[in-house]
Amino acid sequence: MPWPGSTEFVMRFFCTALFSCLGLLAAMLCPAGLLLAGEDSPQGSRLTMDEMVVTATRQDDAIAGLPKSVSVITAADIALAPETDLTSLLAREAGVSAGSFYGHDRFAGVDIRGMGDSAASTVLVLVDGFRINPPDLAGPDFSAISLGSIERIEILRGAGSVLYGDGAVGGVINIITKKAPQKASGSFRASMGSYDAYSLDAGAGGRAGGLGLGVSAGIKETDGFRDNGYLRAKNASIKLDYPLFGRVSLVAGGACNEDDYGLPGPLGADEAKSSALRRSTQYPDDGGQTSEKRARLGFTVDMGRWGELVALRDWRWRENSFVLGYTPLLPRDRQTDSIDEASSNLDVRWSVAKEVFGRENRLVIGGDRFFTDYVREQQSGATRQNSQVLAWGLFARNRFDLTDSLALSAGFRHAVNEVASRTDSLVQFGATRVWVGGPHTEKSASHGVYETGLTWDVAANAMLFGNFSTSFRNPNVDELAQAAGQLAPQTGRHLEAGGRYRAGTSAEFSASLFSTVIENEIYYGLDPNTLLAVNRNYSQDTLRQGLELSVKAYPAEKLFVWANYTFVDAHFEGSGRPVPLVAAHKADAGLEWQALSELLVALSGTFVGSRRDGNDSEDFQHPRLDAYTVLNAKIVYSLWGTRLSAGVLNITDALFVTTAYSGRGYPMPGRNFYGSVEFAF
Fold first, then answer.
1. How far apart are CA 59 and CA 80, in angstroms?
2. Would you call 456 helix, strand, or coil by DSSP?
3. Half-sphere CA count of 160, side-chain side, radius 13 A
4. Which sequence spans correspond to the domains of the chain?
5. Which residues, including other chains, have CB under 8 Å from residue 159's CB and lie 6 or more apart?
6. If we measure between CA atoms, which residue out of 483, 375, 479, 389 comes closest to residue 435?
7. What's the whole-model pTM score?
8. pLDDT classification of 480: cutoffs 50, 70, 90
9. What is the CATH number of domain 6-680?
10. How far, in whole angstroms, is CA 172 from its chain's centroid?
11. Residue 400's CB: how many other CB atoms inside 10 A?
């Protein structure tokens, strides 16, 4: 197969990268005053080039020295942002977009670099390093994570398969929860808003006798802006660490989440655009419940000059029951489908930093093993899907300083995925319905993926980087259960070049160019032979290439501004057809103005360009999703340790959808308001 988009494309990519780097170097040579008006601000801590992150290397490394595009959302960013849900906060970042079904985090997804409808399986989401992507098509549940429990969020764009394995294709999002503080402290937050929404969040923690303990809990309820769009959710978590002896420390934790939700379903294009009809539903009795529990136990060993050893064992149990397409002709229990999942993960890694030939060398070696026992009962189809998935891998990554300004990194993973499945049938014997076992099938796949990167510190406050990596994604259990023939794993090749520049404490700028080619990309569509919707591999390779620009700045002492722009050209290499649900253009901007010592005003806005319908991979028979712009605002008043906030979302009352299939879309909320009070103790 030819390398991405043919030799002509490779030359075009590198020429564009070269001119972009020359432009970045020119900007570096300009005085900072040409970039910004005003003096350097003491608030420069909101700039992130010096932030230490772990997601990109599984070691503590500064963003400035990484050969990848990485960004960080801090607890301060979350506290001051007008947005009130996690997916909207993530979607403010360059290269990141959100798709929602019902206007809240439940069933919302996050896309990185134009993965489109497959983002639920091609963007890996972690909580403290544990993957929360389920083994089916449901996608990670962002509503199960309380915003108040988050310390920081690290976003790695592009392939992360070497360090994280299956599904780390478009990028990796690592949500890091708060550790126990040195001194006993806590916080409480209460919020109310439109659609009879309210939430309560509380957290506390501290240290005593070496034991560090942190706990958090939250409740969130809303009727939703649509009929039958309600959500009732509650969650709790605990996190502790304790020095057992010497340099060995115990780490443990757990979390649980329960929710009850309505499923109002899609609307036709005319209804979704109608102020009077967009809140209606054709499915007033559809809905479901979920119960999820997670646990962690492990230890860390500080080996001094020989590095650090980490061993973690994680478990997750998920139960989900739901009704789709309710009819009064049958009892509700005869229409209730269910999912039971029990998953476990073992993660062991050793990292060390040592001098080799007088230069710093940073090495991480590890292995992981992920196992899932999954059962899905479908009353409507009278089938029960039983699946067991075992995935394991061994990996190594090394970074070596070639010179004082040049560093080379390289990594490799060997991965194996094994799936055993059986589909039972619900058969009627007289007055009794009995599950009858079906045939047993087994599938296996192995992958060898690698990455290599180069960073060049062209100045004390500027660097350039480039990297090449490969990725893979195995079909999940839903896709294997309804597949057209032999469903193959998909593989990807990723090329990226970019740079970062910081102008003192006044501003920072980042830019990256990327190209991704995916072979055998998995999608859900019509089988031309049977005309039935099944999971298949695209017959043509898909190509995603684009540009990401981002700037953060303090143009005045009490004013912080930020903006980013993303361009993505996602299409099929043979035909040039665009990949569905991927916008070519996206832009975000915002500001935070400290109007008074106690008063802060925050504004933010997002523009998303038009996209193809989710079922338009084969032809263009459905209308495009319209472009939209959403503006948000928030006022924060702080006094005596108490913070009062009031905000408005979608100020202009824009009518828009983020997701649509076959011309039927899921409308998003119009203008709505909220207020909150928060205090620390």
1. 29
2. strand
3. 30
4. 6-680
5. 168, 169, 449, 451, 469, 470, 471, 492, 494, 516
6. 375
7. 0.92
8. confident
9. 2.40.170.20
10. 6
11. 16
